[in-house]
Structure formats: structure tokens, C-alpha cells
Design goal:
Blueprint: H1 2-15, H2 21-30, H3 44-64, E1 76-79, E2 85-86, H4 89-99, E3 104-107, H5 116-215, E4 249-256, E5 263-268, H6 273-283, E6 293-296, E7 301-303, E8 320-326
Parallel strand pairs: 4-8
Antiparallel strand pairs: 1-2, 1-3, 4-5, 6-7, 6-8
Helix pairs in contact: 1-2
Length: 327
């Protein structure tokens, strides 16, 4: 039996042209149950002819599928646009994303594995490229940082310039206000001085009249020299030497008894004193119209709530006056 099997195997190998164990086993299975042919009758020429026929059939089948019969196995992928060869599709895809190339083909060119020296060389090149890239990035970062610093400094200078301009404008406004206050104070002082001089003149005239009456002498300034006794002098309703009816407006400077800056206003000479109180209440929160009182130093007078209905002309405050307000 072993000999029979040996002859069967030998005959199958001979019949398949010694192409290997697999074709021989297929031949044995196909001819199972048939008598073993004479080994001398099985020639290699017939097996070769059969093999050639099989190869022709395989070639026809490949051609029908659009594959060349002598096509070789693809061992790499080649970029048709730049000619670079890649070991696998992952590397080819990375190249496509990086370069934008989209034309690739299979290649029979085999990429040999790198030797240890080539690996070290590639590693050194990669390290050098990374170092160069970091150096370029450092230069770009330095440029961006320099530009950002320049912008920050420019913004700081602009902000400082704006602050200086605001300070200068505020200082100019304060200087103008002080100048106006100084002018108003000078005018008020001039008005007070004029009132003092007018009051002094009025007192001198009054003293001269009274003395003339006591001594029985003609009254100074009286047009009727024959009159032995002068008529009683009616007190003047104004504190100045100029009749109040000649001025349509009255300029007032109001100072608080508690101190602080003066307040100036110009009102109609026919306006009641209450309007002055209302003006001051609009400037100072601590002032109440119903409780505030006013006083005049030259001549010394005090105005109470009963005087609020009287006009400035009637109270002798025209053409200008300085009042001291007590909340």
C-alpha cells in the first residue's frame, strides 16, 4: 500500500510538471478510484503541454478582466506629479495633503529598508529641520512681540496725551473761572466803595443840614434862602448817590455767612427780594427760601422775610449791592 501511494504521488508530481505538492494533491483527488497509470507513459511533455494550456486559459481570464498577463506585483506607490515613491498608502496620503498632489500610480519599484546609518542620518536631518523651524518660529514670535510692544507703547502715549490735554483744558477752564471771579469781585468791591462814598456824602450833607437848622443858618443846597426852617429831610430809599429809578437792572453778589465762594446774579430792579432767595436756594442745597435772611454791610441793614415782597429798588439795592446770606 505504501508503494502504491508512493507511485501515486510520484505519478501526480510527474503529471503536474513537479509544480509542487498542492497541484499534485489536486491531481490525485481528481483521479481518485482510477488505476495508477504507467509511470513510464506519463511524460513531462504532456504535463508541460497541460500546464501551457492552463497558463493560456489563465492569461485569457486575466485579459478579460483588464489585467495584463505579464503584470508584476505592485510594491510601492508613486506620485505622478513629482515622482516621489512611497512605501504605503498612508505616506502617499500624507504627501497628498501636504503638497496638494492628487495623481498617484502603483509602482513595481521596491523601497529597500533603511540601514542603521541611513536611519541615523534621517534622524539627524529631522532634528536639524525641527531646530531650523523652531529658530524661524522664535524669530517670528520676536517680531510679533516687538510689534505688540510698539502698539502698546503707542496706545499708552496716546492715552497720556489725552490725559494731558484734558488736564490742560480743565486748568484753562479753572483759570478762566478765576479770572471771571476776580473781575466780579473787583466790580463788587468798586460798587461797595461807591456805596461807602455815597453814604459818607449823604451823612455829611445830613450833618450840615442839621447843624444849619440848629444854628439858624441857611441850609446848604437849599434854593429857598428866605425860609427860616428847612422842611424835614425824607430818608433816602437808596444807599447810593444815584437814584435807583435810573437803573432797570440790579447786579448782586451774594456771600454765605458760613464762607465759600460768592454767587453773582443780575435781576430786574423791580424784582422782589424773594427772587434772590430762590436764586441762592438753587445754588446752595442748605438754603431754604422760607428761612434764609440777608444783610448788607454798607450801609448796615438786615432784610427779613417781611422784606421779601419788596423790590430791589425799594430796598435800595440798585444798581449793585453785596449781600450776606444766613441759611
Amino acid at each position: 500500500m505504501s508503494l502504491l501511494k508512493g507511485d501515486m504521488i510520484t505519478g501526480a508530481l510527474k503529471a503536474t510538471g513537479s509544480r509542487g505538492l498542492q497541484p499534485a494533491m489536486e491531481h490525485i483527488l481528481q483521479n481518485e478510484g482510477q488505476p495508477i497509470p504507467n509511470l513510464g507513459a506519463v511524460t513531462e511533455s504532456s504535463s508541460i503541454a497541460r500546464n501551457d494550456a492552463d497558463d493560456d486559459e489563465d492569461a485569457d481570464a486575466l485579459r478579460s478582466l483588464g489585467v495584463a498577463a505579464n503584470a508584476t506585483e505592485a510594491k510601492s506607490i508613486k506620485c505622478s506629479q513629482c515622482g516621489k515613491v512611497f512605501r504605503n498608502t498612508a505616506l502617499a496620503q500624507f504627501h497628498a495633503e501636504k503638497s496638494g498632489h492628487d495623481q498617484f500610480e502603483e509602482s513595481s519599484e521596491e523601497i529597500k529598508p533603511l540601514t542603521e546609518e541611513e536611519k541615523q542620518q534621517k534622524l539627524a536631518e529631522l532634528r536639524q529641520k525641527m531646530a531650523e523651524k523652531r529658530a524661524r518660529q522664535a524669530v517670528e514670535d520676536a517680531k510679533e512681540q516687538k510689534a505688540s510692544e510698539a502698539l502698546r507703547r503707542k496706545a499708552g502715549k496716546d492715552m497720556n496725551k489725552i490725559k494731558e490735554e484734558m488736564k490742560l483744558k480743565q486748568a484753562n477752564q479753572e483759570a478762566e473761572q478765576k479770572k471771571r471771579d476776580k473781575i466780579e469781585d473787583a466790580k463788587a468791591k468798586a460798587a461797595i466803595k461807591a456805596q461807602i462814598e455815597a453814604d459818607k456824602k449823604a451823612r455829611n450833607e445830613k450833618f450840615a443840614r442839621e447843624k444849619a437848622l440848629r444854628d439858624g443858618l441857611p441850609i446848604p443846597g437849599d434854593s429857598s434862602a428866605s425860609a427860616p426852617v428847612a422842611a424835614p429831610i425824607k430818608p433816602s430809599t437808596t444807599s447810593s448817590g444815584v437814584a435807583g429809578k435810573d437803573y432797570s437792572e440790579t447786579r448782586l453778589q451774594i456771600r454765605m455767612a458760613t464762607g465759600g465762594q460768592p454767587y453773582t446774579t443780575t435781576l430786574s430792579s423791580d424784582a422782589p427780594l424773594r427772587e434772590v432767595a430762590e436764586f441762592l436756594a438753587g445754588q446752595v442745597l442748605a438754603v431754604n427760601v422760607d428761612s434764609v435772611s440777608f444783610a448788607q454791610q454798607f450801609p448796615r441793614k438786615t432784610f427779613s422775610q417781611s422784606d421779601f415782597s419788596k423790590s430791589l429798588r425799594e430796598l435800595g439795592l440798585t444798581p449793585s449791592a453785596v449781600l450776606i446770606a444766613t441759611p
